[in-house]
Amino acid sequence: MANRVHVIDSHTEGEPTRVVMGGAPDLPAGTAGERLEHLRRDHDGFRSAVVCEPRGFDALVGAVLYPPHSPGAVTQVMFFNNVGWLGMCAHGTIGLGATMLHAGQIEPGRHRVETPVGDVVMDVKADGRVSVENVESWRAQAGVTIGTERHGVVHGDVAWGGNWFFLVDGCGMDLSLANVGRLTDYAWDVRASLTRAGITGDDGGEIDHVELFGPPTRPDAHSKNFVLCPGREYDRSPCGTGTSAKMACLAAAGKLADDAVWRQESILGTLFSGSVRSTERGVLPTVAGRAWITAESTLLLGSDDPFREGIRA
Ligand code: PYC
Question: pTM for the complete prediction?
């Protein structure tokens, strides 16, 4: 592992992203999926060095870039967090677009990006606004009932939006920052109950994101959410893959027509706007938001540092 890792940090509607611009592990050529397997197997210490304390913090999402496999793409990206690797991350893709623009690596416009779960397109505007044409998303199970340990019976849908989500309408608590501790506890209980009950996404995919919905606070939003990510951190943005999963559920229920705009508010009161195009299985979602660059820095990974690989749980 390199001793110096150059990063650019940003936040997308409040949710942080750290893009590795130099110092990533050398990997053989391959698809994003193949390279992800290498990273998982051989370089997990690089993940934790970049996003975990003392150089990062639990809410931070990292992105590491490699040359693309398909000729039309501008880059390959693998996203990661405090506990592992993600399939796709839409707030992170918005951050990636703003970061590559800031670094002079791309011009405003449409750019194809390879992720381990499929190609996405980022449409980058000069002011840091980015819309992401995400991977196909669909509702896999509707109206699933689970018995939780501490919060009684909970009903929700299972959907794919680039990661697996369990979506719950109305948890009986206000979706406000004052309630983050209780919301986290609730969503964590739901996630553990899904695991205990053996409820998964298609092909046994682990449901590692739980999304709670309530009425919006902003007059321009349709709904507000609280999203708990795999490492027990909540998404400060409305979660782009979670918004994709939500729109797939709405479309499956006949509540969202093609090209109608869906505005999803986050727990912080920030907004993503989205829309869908129907497919045979579900929808092709687009999610738009803005990112702001917050830092450019070099992480130092001293070879005698006991926390060279970060503080790992
Ligand atoms: O925006 O897709 C997203 C996301 C996933 C995890 C955190 N943010």
Answer: 0.98
